[in-house]
């Protein structure tokens, strides 16, 4: 007999073990994954056993049994029972688990909990037995031993399993001690390292896991498996070994599901027509959605995209499917020093930079299928008039303060210099090329006015310190109004935890007047006499951009923006933007006292990192918006993955290995497989026509289970928990796959008339599930949804999200032409992408010509969270201003000391975030340089 296998194939372990034990000589022929062995099959999986020339066995368990029977017929039904248990219960959870843990080092807890339940059953069954069957060592032992090997031995071993499952331990050790098993391990697992199974594992389709664990309730009772008759005793267990079972469908759920299926369509709302301009409507849920306005001077990376635009896009698409009256506004944030700097760098005017990059941003978001109702920009006359009007309203009501600040002024350029326009000698370590805000050599933060030999970066002249008058928003005076508003919306609205925590910490620390003017040219001009040479600070200006962009969309903008009782505003943004949206902008709106609509819901993400580090434009690390298409992968696949790993409760990472895994397992094997299989079967066997569906009890149960997922999908979406809703979609697809698998319509179709009719019911129900999936998928993967709907010939009234699964494709409906939806991503392609987007390694800090300094930053101490560094830098600068202000006013020493202490704390946090020694950053380390 010949055994064809790829290298390191886990299933080959059981086959080689049993063959050795049975004394069967197998000729092992190593093949590459995808290589063809069987002439009449276009694709098959390894291992393949050629029992005699031209006759093949493709199921590893059947092949194991076949070999074992060669030695002696195994008549015990227990053997079949265990073989089936392995393939139908264990594999669907064990394989995805192994793929995750060996493939990307990330075990999935949900799967693990399920595996543990199965191990517990197995342990119970082994009580008083040496092997699984009473008749002794059989194929069942080899099948289970082979499958469990990477979980119970080697690098990825499940910690503590021996003490939890003592019977398994005895059995497994007995198996491992068999010379046959030892030989199999030597042949399959290179150097005993189970990591050598990775390549083969990743190249196989992953068996379909059980329905999503959302629907699996933790309970002390275990559903008794009919076949196994396993009875698990209630025992005190460690927390992670909780026993779980699927919550049984109730009678009420069943009745509701059947009613909805039969009669629900008439109750479904009709899909909305999208007619511009969209304005609030009486008696409707009017939702105003904003996405943070990305800076125009940068190409957005995938973190920016998931942090604001893509998340807001998914939510607004969902709102439309629910029939809410929603308007989604975004655009580019165009003013500020960064734009001026970029203009100098590219030898263009700031306006030219804005035009160039606004076009680039627009193209990127178009490629990603971001469907804003209007994508505008902040450099418009509407921005000027609205921002100035708001300013006057604040000014006239006494919410604007005046104060002076010391700043460097370049007489030659006739301008005050922002920090990034100054360089000089570091006052702390005497490094000559220090920047205006930080020294690249000692890494410490500096105030530009403290630099020795300061130079204007633009003309190299020496600037002078000049006191300049600025305008401040009186946040302390506005605090009571803000607090009242927050008390209300924290209760009634949807605020992500980080949005609440960041906002509360700002308020807890006490609000301070916030400077809203800058000595710059590129910005909205301050209209107040004596200040007209200044512009508004970008963070005062940018959120007002939401209003002016709406004003560019429709001259009836006030219907959205001066309608606080009838409009629900959702802000989508990354965590660093929170204080500006939850404190400063609401204070601005409330202080203007002009009936402005103020934020009710704030949906802030954490950060998305790239692989093990961060996105970096300067080093070219990570995928930037304009590069995603260079991979040749469709935008929908990026959308899917970004939403799958959306950083909701903590920072997450874009990982190419995981990208491959999610594409090949979730999209290709689960979703794509289910939809294509159903549609193709209906086309090939029923002329593509939906058949009469005579529902059996199990079908009704399926409807009820789908309704559970659907309702959880809606509940998650309503709270903008976008990451979980995508899992509900995958769970519905999994339910559909299992339904097809257990009913086998392809067998039924060849049987009696009754069987054929059952086959028609099964596939027609499955195709209706595919139709439901096409709608639920729309917010996430709009193009794929459209493709599925073209193939299904979906009636347009299907396009609503309703709380119950209704039959939208009735008997007689004819579908279109099916074709596969997703492509497999090969591991070699992923390696290519990894190289393509790796960028340059983190540079050593810049030093004097020829001099090398030690890297004390990110490269040395692990990944740096860029945005956190930016946020802390801003905090340090802010606090620095407070300290300086107090000192210049000769405030009480104790007051100054307390503010200095806060500043030092912030500096330490910043140093930590930058991967530096916090003590050194605040001058606690050994001093080398001498302060002048
Ligand atoms: N790594 C990241 N992960 C998630 N979200 C992120 C990440 N980095 C930034 N962001 C968010 O992206 C948007 C846009 O950021 P940008 O710096 O271009 O613009 C601004 O912050 C302001 N122009 C916004 C004015 S309203 C933002 O929400 C970041 O938090």
Automatic annotation (TrEMBL):
Domain WHEP-TRS: 868-924
Keyword terms of this UniProt record: Aminoacyl-tRNA synthetase, ATP-binding, Cytoplasm, Ligase, Nucleotide-binding, Protein biosynthesis, RNA-binding, tRNA-binding
Documented EC number(s): 6.1.1.10
Signal sequence annotation: none
Region of interest called Disordered, as start-end residue ranges on this chain: 841-870
Keyword Hydrolase belongs to the record: no
Keyword Glycosyltransferase (UniProt): no
Chief location category: cytoplasm
Intracellular or extracellular location(s): Cytoplasm
GO molecular function list: ATP binding; methionine-tRNA ligase activity; tRNA binding
Catalytic activity reported: tRNA(Met) + L-methionine + ATP = L-methionyl-tRNA(Met) + AMP + diphosphate
Positions in coiled-coil regions: none
GO term, biological process aspect, one: methionyl-tRNA aminoacylation
A single cellular component GO annotation: cytosol
Boundaries of every GST C-terminal domain copy: 72-208
HAMAP family: Met_tRNA_synth_type1
Annotated family: Belongs to the class-I aminoacyl-tRNA synthetase family.
Annotated protein name in UniProt: Methionine--tRNA ligase, cytoplasmic
